[in-house]
Amino acid sequence: MRKNFLYIVGGVLAVVAFAISVFILSTTPDAHIVPTPFRAIVGGVFGMMAALLVLVLGFIKSVQSSD
Fold this sequence. Notes:
By secondary structure, the protein is mainly alpha-helical. 81% of the residues lie in helices and 0% in strands. The chain contains two helices and no strands. It has helices at 2-27, 38-65. It is elongated, with a radius of gyration of 15 Å. The two termini are 17 Å apart.
């Protein structure tokens, strides 16, 4: 039960971080220009955090399943 709770909470956090990233990037005008607006950088960081969290959860699951 504790492992499932970890995956559920981690999955929800990843989805929320990704949704925040999509919202920020879609509402930032001129997010594609150089220099990149600070708001677009923050949105990209949220997206990278979501991707990293998914990779960490996958790593934890693969390590636990090999036991």
